[in-house]
Design a protein that fits this description.
- The structure is a single chain.
- About 85% of the residues lie in helices and about 0% in strands.
- The chain has one domain.
- By secondary structure, the chain is mainly α.
Amino acid sequence: MPEDMNLEVAHKLSEREQTVGENRRWEEAIEILGILMLALAAVATAWGGFQAAKGDGRQSVLYAEAGVDRVKATTVAIAGQQRLASDASTFNQWLEATRANDRVLQALLVRRFSPEYRTAFAAWQKTAPFTTPSAPPGPGYMSEYHNPQLEQAEHLNEEAAATEEEGTHARETAEKYIGATVLFALVLFLVAVSQRFRLRGVRIGAIAIALALLSYALYQVATLPRL
């Protein structure tokens, strides 16, 4: 009997040691996984914050460039409007000279037109404006008329709009990076908290949630454009 009891005790002790060893290996595996997740989340958080900062900086630069383009567009547009006003004023004088049948003054005024307006004026005369009711009111309404300054102003405004849109996109991308860093911070929190629990089910649950969030955040960061 004593020998049987000794064998049974030794068997139970062996089973307990085996269980303790299994639990220890399980805890080591969880700890290793947690450390890897912490390291990855920490690096990803730093990367996301860096990209978000670059996005904010790029937005500021692009908005500044768009502002400069709009100022240039305004300046050029004013010059173009002044040029058109000068041509229109000269054209009104030409009409007065035409009514007075002063051909010398007419020729002098035509020479004062800007090159673009003079081209449109020649095309306007071909429409028989004094006898055709459907003729355009003046050279400025002709398709042949081009105002370089106004066209340049329009081009600058289009560039400014495109630059502003790019800046807005950079800001939106930066906000998405910030959202990803929040998820990484949550991963860090869950992994750290999981180490405080001794129940296997709770620890596994916390690690599983953290792993799912980490995978989603990494996918989001991987698909976002680099700034």
